[in-house]
Amino acid sequence: MKKLLLLLMMCIFGLGCSQKIPTVLKTKFSKEALSQKLENEEGKSVTIQQILDQHKGKVLVIDFWAGWCRDCLNALPKAKELEEKNKNIDFVFLSLDRSKEGFNKSLERFEMKDKENYWFSSGWKNDFNNYIDLNWIPRYMVIDQKSAIAKYYAISPEDPEIQTTIDKLLK
């Protein structure tokens, strides 16, 4: 009986936490998604729209991560390689750490203080993450020079489509 209960719990947990590729690959953001607020390292509130406006005219890679996420931490060296290889584009890191304290500790611990970082103080479920079908991290998106979504869904910085998309946008 215990084995059956354990198996049932594993199946339920696995189904609830599995990665699912979005069925619709979006190319632009909704008004609600653009209005989503995050916090910068100093605790100042900023919207997704304001972040995109700061990078208008540049190719932007958005990296969704958290200090508690083993997959994210395993991907960090390759994400840094991607950034080093593409010094002519911008990178923004959006944290899903569970608290402001956790966010700050993660930035320090994983040497992210020299990067552009924001934290979802509203938590995982919010207008932006719901709109982009965020159900797993790490996740990467490539945004073009006009703030449109050029690469909607990638789960690894080693996904060759990330570099292909960047190269096409820079031509």
UniProtKB/TrEMBL annotation:
GO terms for cellular component: cell envelope. GO terms for biological process: cytochrome complex assembly. Residues 27-171 form the Thioredoxin domain. It comes from the Bacteria. Signal peptide: none annotated. It is found in: Cell envelope. Its main location: other. Keywords: Cytochrome c-type biogenesis, Disulfide bond, Redox-active center. This is Alkyl hydroperoxide reductase. It comes from Chryseobacterium glaciei.
